[in-house]
Amino acid sequence: MTRLTPFEWIAAMRFMREGSAQTLLIILGVALGVGVIVFMSALIAGLQSNIIRRTLNYTAPIVVVPPEQVARPQRKEEEAQIAALVQPRSQQLRSIDQWQKARAQIEQVPGVIAATPIVSGPGFALRGDANNAVTVTGIDVDSYIKVITLAEKIVAGKLSVTSSDIVIGIELAKDLGASVGDKVRLTSPIGEAETLNVTGIIDFGSRAANERRVYIGLRVAQNLMGLAGRVTRIEVKVDDPFAAETIARAIQAETDLQADSWIKTNAQFFTAMAAQSLSNTLIRLFVGLTAALGIASVLVVSVVQKSKEIGILRAMGASRAQVLRVFLFQGATMGLVGSLLGSALGWAFLAVWRGAAKNPDGTPLFVIEIEPSLFVLAAAGATLVGTLAAAIPARRAAKLDPVVAIRG
């Protein structure tokens, strides 16, 4: 067995056994650091994924709307003798003409999965003496559910929006005293009105949305808003939500309509996510530096303590490169063993978290996906850190003069 085992590995293991207390402390330190890195990385990734999933559950990644109405002076600038103040026009309910053609163009853009027409505008929901201001959303159910998972939000009844149906938010249902099967009268700012049957009640998890959102059929909404044959926007689902801004630019170039991605409209949200990611990176960096300094300090002490043994090894014919590799092996071994223990510790932290962090109904607070690649990267990173940390004391050991080292 000795013939098959490299000399450097035998010497490294012997040095580590002789300083077993120091070796054990460093391995435990590395394990704790790796455990923290694995736990924090998985936790933050799960939190961000959950926020994105909840955001996109009832918000399309891309919304295509008509260009804004811009006020222009009637005279050319060079002809004007006096500078005129041009006030911006009030933005009326804008609509997309020939939306079928626009949707067909949008669906041809690479990265687009589905597109659905929407008619949206203000209105009032009335039942008895109750009168609530609402946001009316007219949808084509078959195409809408390909973009927004609305059916998952239904808490009573079903998602049905035919010419005589309406789906309302749970808070609005309470305010109107309405339940599935009741009738609600919907009016628009232009004086049009429809009496519709409540076929479903929806819960978005947001009080503001639950108080104002109502869903009706696309044609009913067109009649209410006076937009016969037109829609106010087209909502788009893409295969990669983080490429939404790039796809939105492509849609805008293709259709000459204004395409707003969720990345653009949620700039502050992405700033907060970037700050979270930066914090996670800094935590990893400082934990890695702490582990590296611990390994380096132990090996520096080991070089001083084992100077005579190193001198004897050199006198017996060990080369500088072999002595260098002895200490590099020590650093790599402590990093690898510590990372394996740390990965197990991180997994245990995550298991405890998933068991403790639950909603009142017993469902998980948010889903944490444990990626095997995270453990592989942690192990590789800790091993690399241990090897690099051992570089300076290893070079110092390799440079020892054997005669001086033996004399002490």
List keywords for this structure.
elongated; alpha+beta; six-stranded mixed β-barrel; 53% helix; 10 strands; single chain; 408 residues
Give the secondary structure arrangement, pairings included.
Blueprint: H1 7-18, H2 20-57, E1 62-65, H3 99-107, E2 112-127, E3 130-139, H4 141-144, E4 154-157, E5 165-169, H5 170-176, E6 183-187, E7 193-202, H6 207-212, E8 213-217, H7 218-225, E9 233-238, H8 244-255, E10 258-261, H9 262-265, H10 267-305, H11 307-315, H12 320-356, H13 372-389, H14 391-398, H15 402-407
Parallel strand pairs: 3-8, 5-7
Antiparallel strand pairs: 1-9, 1-10, 2-3, 2-6, 2-9, 4-7, 5-8, 6-7
Written account of the structure:
The mean pLDDT is 80. The chain is built from 15 helices and ten strands. The protein has helices at residues 7-18, 20-57, 99-107, 141-144, 170-176, 207-212, 218-225, 244-255, 262-265, 267-305, 307-315, 320-356, 372-389, 391-398, 402-407, and strands at 62-65, 112-127, 130-139, 154-157, 165-169, 183-187, 193-202, 213-217, 233-238, 258-261. The protein is elongated, with a radius of gyration of 33 Å. Strands 2-3-8-5-7-6 form a six-stranded mixed barrel. Helix content is 53%, strand content 17%.
- The strands making up the biggest β-sheet line up spatially as 2-3-8-5-7-6
Shape: elongated
The fraction of residues in strands falls at 15-25%
The SSE string, one letter per element, is HHEHEEHEEHEEHEHEHEHHHHHHH
Number of helices: 15
The residue fraction in helices comes out at 40-55%
The poorly predicted ranges are none
Query: What's the rounded overall pLDDT mean?
Result: 80
How would you classify the helix and strand content by structural class? alpha+beta
Number of strands: 10
Global Rg? 33 Å
Largest sheet: 6 strands, mixed, barrel
Distance between the termini: 33 Å
